[in-house]
Amino acid sequence: METLEQKNKKLLICISDPTILEFLTNTIQTYFEDVLDIVSIRPSKLFDLDFVPTAAIISHRTVNLVRERFPNTTLILQKRDLSGQALEKVVSLPDGSNVLIVNQHMDAANETIRSFIELGINHINMRAYAPGNNIDTSQVDAVIYTGVPEDCPKLDCPYIDIGLRKISLYTIIDIIRAFDLPSDFTKAYYNDSIRLFTASCYQLQNTLEQANTLKNNFEKICDINNNITFVINENDEIILFNETANKYFEIRDPQEIMGMDYKEVFRDQPELLSYIAANVPLTDTLVTIENQKLLLSSFEMDVDKSQNKAFTLLPLSTLKKREGMVRKKLRATGFTAKYTFDDILGSSTLMERSKKLAKVYAKTEFPVLITGESGTGKELFAQSIHNMSSRRESNFVAINFAALPETLAESELFGYMEGAFTGALKNGKAGMFELAHQGTIFLDEIGDASLPVQAKLLRVLEEKEVVRVGGTDVIPVDVRIICATNKDLQAAIREGTFREDLYYRIKVLNLRLQPLRERPEDIMEIISHLLESQQAKALANLPNIRDKLISYTWPGNARELRTAAEYMNMLSSLSDREEALDMLNVYFENNLQTDPLAETESPAQTGKPGREEAAVKGDYIGPDLIAILEAIFRLQNQGVTAGRNSICKTQSAQALQLTESKIKSRLKKLEAMGYITVGKTKQGALLTDRGYQLLKQFIQ
Ligand SMILES: Nc1ncnc2c1ncn2[C@@H]1O[C@H](COP(=O)(O)OP(=O)(O)OP(=O)(O)O)[C@@H](O)[C@H]1O
């Protein structure tokens, strides 16, 4: 046996792949050519050698041959590493890609696969390939080769050259050991290989980066909702303190408090300290920190067996701001009144009077009941009243009882709690009354509300608070009520389908909108506004068309007028004028037949001193005259003499700011019109029958 001293300096390199053989030989020579006698050969030349090398660098393919030829020689299995760049290319392949690893020899290709796996590359499916090796290449997404493109099969996919791989540090160390060389020899190689080492850590580095990104994201998420957030671990140490918390507690160096005991950090906040120390679940618990009220909540964080606890603090002032913003958003999503009095067309005496009265109502907080046939503009008026009221900045929430199924009415109006019924939304839902808080709720077609719903509505109007379906908490609501109906509510009360007590609650102020047939002057004004072109306007003004429009009874009122206007707009675009006229006449014949009922109901036939009559005569009956008539009526009923002074003190006169001198002139006017008599003595003003009939039309 050779002793250590007797060792020769011969290092054999025996590899089948000529490219790798040359590459390995060059690399090993770079480091050892001064101290070792390096011989490199292909396996076929093995038996030509006439010396026994101390060590031999071999591959998986040549190991048996060399062992057989030189049984006492130290065998060093060549190991190579990948460069960082090569690794990056491989790592960036999409997950699950089918990849061919190509080398001139299968064992070398397999060795590359082994090194990839050792380096933690496991997101791709790798198969070895060498020229002449018959394997299925139909499902290949990428080909990886080592410097020799000729070895690769011709496929339609990306080719990645990872170049010749560097010799591994282990191989260098094995050579040093085999020849008992001083360890200094590793130094030169170490400098080079440190880069390789970094590459080998590529995956680890990536994972660390991902973890860091996740941590940063988490901290950002904690900041997004602007809640003060901090996390404490089981040793009472602060392990997270978000940006909002830093600002709120005025922490100059956030890093400094990481790992600090929370009792130290919050030493000046005894109330907060006691809540944290109590170790009980907290949900929106009210705490005071430096005279400011905040809501404190705690959350157990059962992550990876840790017993961390997160806390959030939300100042009430922030909560209020958010509530305001949510309300604004709700308004933006549909709870808005878009119409104002300027959108209400018609300047007939009756329409002017309705607008005047409604504008006065807008200044008050009283409930308004708007009555009138379908399409007379009840909702238009309701929206305009809201928009002129002090509540215009808040929601206008409209609910139509004719379209609201009985089963949904309660939950829609008053909201519900989570789990109140099958299909109830998680976290429950606010009802229309809550959404209208500080604004106006418009209860359209109130005459269609069922008796049980009427009972609940009455309760809300009286108590000014709601309780959600399935809940117990009482929620105060500050809402102005405007109701509308085209039904005769007094008849409904007689029939027992409408509650009398509710009727008096909602009808504090009454606005009766007249149908178009009672104010024919408005027809042409509204229709001309809706006609888009000059041709359409000219068409409408043709004498026979105009007569038809005015004499028609318009049971659908302005809504029907809109439809007629749309039809006329469409016809006016026809180039053949005669044809347009014919079609219009057909439309009138089919649709606009004078309603015989309306004619028998006309004021002339009923003998009533109707508003139409008054308007035609030029006797304008403004809201001030009606208010005075109403005041006289009420005083008369109370047995009080209706003089200037007593009328002036009534609610209706005060709402219109009528002075005694104004009242005096109006009393004269009413007397001249035959609606009142004014006694010369203490008797005061008295309603005539005519005056009573007129007033009845305004006050149901
Ligand atoms: N004076 C008016 N000027 C302009 N448009 C009007 C006028 N009156 C009503 N309209 C229009 O007619 C249509 C019906 O109006 P609105 O919905 O306010 O009537 P309504 O009395 O509430 O009807 P319904 O009782 O059927 O609900 C709307 O398109 C409205 O803009």
Automatic annotation (TrEMBL):
Keywords, in A-Z order: ATP-binding, DNA-binding, Nucleotide-binding
Gene3D superfamilies reported for this sequence: 1.10.8.60, P-loop containing nucleotide triphosphate hydrolases, Winged helix-like DNA-binding domain superfamily/Winged helix DNA-binding domain
InterPro entries: AAA+_ATPase, AAA_lid_NorR, P-loop_NTPase, Sigma_54_int, Sigma_54_int_dom_ATP-bd_1, WH-like_DNA-bd_sf, WH_DNA-bd_sf
Residues covered by the Sigma-54 factor interaction domain: 344-570
One GO-annotated biological process of the protein: regulation of DNA-templated transcription
Transmembrane segments: none
Stretches the record annotates as Disordered: 595-614
Molecular function, one GO term: ATP binding
Name of the protein in its database record: Sigma 54-interacting transcriptional regulator
Source organism of this protein record: Hominibacterium faecale
